[in-house]
Amino acid sequence: MINQTIRVGFVGAGANTRKHHIPKLRAQPGVELVAVANRTKESGERVAREFEIPRVYDDWRDLVRAPDVDAVCIGTWPYVHCAITLAALDAGKHVLCEARMAMDAAEARRMLEGARRAPHLITQLVPAPNTLEVDATLQRLVAESYVGEVLAVEIRAIQGRFVDPAEALHWRQDATVSGVNVMSMGIWYEALTRWLPPASRVMAVTKTAVPRRRDTGGAWHDVRIPDHVDILATLVGGAVANLRFSAVTALAPPSEVWIFGTDGTLRLEVDARRLSGGRRGERELREIPIPAERRIGWRVEEEFVSALRGHEKVTRTTFEDGVRYMEFTDAVARSAESGRAIDVAEL
Of 61, 175, 328, 332, which alpha carbon lies 20 to 30 A from 198's? Predict the structure, then answer.
């Protein structure tokens, strides 16, 4: 598709799709937005009017089968990511799929198998965005042994505020549409594996602050997705990771990452996108400047189109990476449910 027009259809047009995927795909040279299928025909028509997309479908299957759609951007909740991805690949369409990859690791593996059966098609997952600007520098520092042998890792990812028992059930708290995904846990694990080896074993404890909530229609639901999780993990190679993800730790310090090694320490202040470090013999951390050209940031849609043109390979994020974070997510869920340590499945 080096010189051809790339015609994109959208299945699901939630906030991230409207903020990023639709306008940023449209901004790529030689890309045409041709169709949308949202949760309802009415909501699809609103999106079509807003972004001047010419065709609206009642059923996403019709969009996937449409002969004038070359690539499908999937912006739904996770519960249909697998079905839409497999149908699109079977129909010969390239796929850009919103994160999280799937409901669980089994679905994620099916998606990966489908992609491997169609190696001529491009598949990409929307990446974890919160560390994109610092990833290249962190990768370089770890690879160059700035910290020496990595001994321990700490991640505190805080979305904390005081609990509101009257608040309606959010879709991320609904396991029937979100699966085993928990808050930003998968996003942070994806980021961690960009710098360090994956986890081989996990032990998790979770807390659900409000066990039952009403949906927007007033019906009651049991909440099976926790509001807080603490994880102890062993990484491949022997380092220990202490990970906390919480939506209930109100007034806690901002999210941050620490990497401790035999010869140095690195700290990432997430909101400030600031990296600092110190090495053996130094008495305090000092900021590590990150040149503007290394703060790559968000280029999801550009990377997808560039891969379709044959100019680069997808790196943020591959289906292999997605399976890895879904296997970790499954292991955390099984550990929390069983009360014991769980080995993380391998690809």
Answer: 175
